[in-house]
Design brief:
It contains nine helices and no strands. By secondary structure, it is mainly α. The chain is globular, with a radius of gyration of 19 Å. The chain starts with a helix and ends with a helix. Bound molecules: zinc ion (2 copies). One zinc ion binds next to helix 7.
């Protein structure tokens, strides 16, 4: 089934779940910026993702052919011919670790942070915030993901598809207004309560913390986890986030138009 249908189905499931078990019952379903975020969902989740993944995959495949021709990588990727479930698991773990590193760069490299501010300018967390990000992030993430995956891991693209669907569902989960804890699994997997602290507007525990996408493991391992279990952040956003324009067109232009910090 096409990815778009999975994206819509996962979105509908979380929209219903948020009504049934909200973490913040007073948060309205029709919150400010929801229309923007639904545009981002379709644009980033489908249109631009398909296009940018196509361009990056094509580039990576050509790169692989060129470097194979000069014997820099083996003729077959490490995942070629391995069990399907193993391929999905390896794609998930490898791509999640790469994304954790990229996400860290989005926060620590000043000009990348200007792009990532769009994601952090949401003020009420729900599933629809998952795909609220500047289109450049698709280019940065997918280049850094697909190139090593296609060049070194190889394997079956169907397995990569399932890993991507799983990561989409988990990303929706992380942003959802859902009152769900995952117990001791919190040391392995990310969750709404932990990701709320990534969106914390204050500098408590450091201005940037909890970079994990699906797995929280990397944050615990590398000392970037911050999570006071008994409470949620007082405010979601970033310092001086009133600078962020309200409409998508100006949000797209924001990092380029703005004087760099
Ligand atoms: Zn972030
Ligand atoms: Zn987020």
């Amino acid at each position: 089934m096409e990815y778009l249908y999975w994206l819509l189905g996962i979105s509908a499931a979380f929209a219903i779940a948020e009504r049934l078990r909200p973490a913040r019952p007073s948060q309205p379903a029709l919150r400010p910026q929801l229309a923007n975020d639904l545009f981002y969902l379709v644009f980033n989740g489908h249109l631009w993702a398909v296009l940018s993944a196509g361009i990056v995959t094509w580039t990576a495949t050509r790169t692989r052919e060129v470097i194979q021709a000069v014997d820099l990588v083996p003729a077959h990727g490490w995942l070629d011919g391995r069990p399907f479930a193993l391929q999905i698991a390896v794609y998930l773990v490898v791509s999640d670790f790469l994304q954790w590193n990229v996400h860290r760069l989005l926060h620590t490299v000043p000009w990348l942070w200007q792009f990532h501010k769009v994601h952090h300018s949401v003020h009420a967390m729900d599933w629809a915030a998952n795909f609220r990000f500047h289109w450049m992030e698709n280019v940065v993430y997918k280049s850094l993901l697909f190139v090593p995956i296609v060049v070194w891991l190889g394997g079956d693209f169907a397995a990569l598809f399932w890993a991507y669907v799983f990561a989409t569902a988990w990303g929706h989960f992380n942003h959802a207004n859902l009152d769900v804890g995952i117990g001791p699994l919190r040391y392995v997997f990310n969750s709404p309560r932990m990701h709320m602290w990534h969106h914390d507007a204050s500098d408590e525990g450091g201005v940037a913390k909890n970079f994990g996408i699906v797995l929280s493991l990397w944050d615990w391992m590398f000392g970037t986890a911050y999570w006071p279990l008994e409470r949620a952040p007082a405010r979601i956003g970033y310092p001086r986030d009133e600078e962020m324009p309200r409409d998508v067109v100006r949000q797209f232009a924001f990092p380029l138009a703005r004087e760099r910090d």
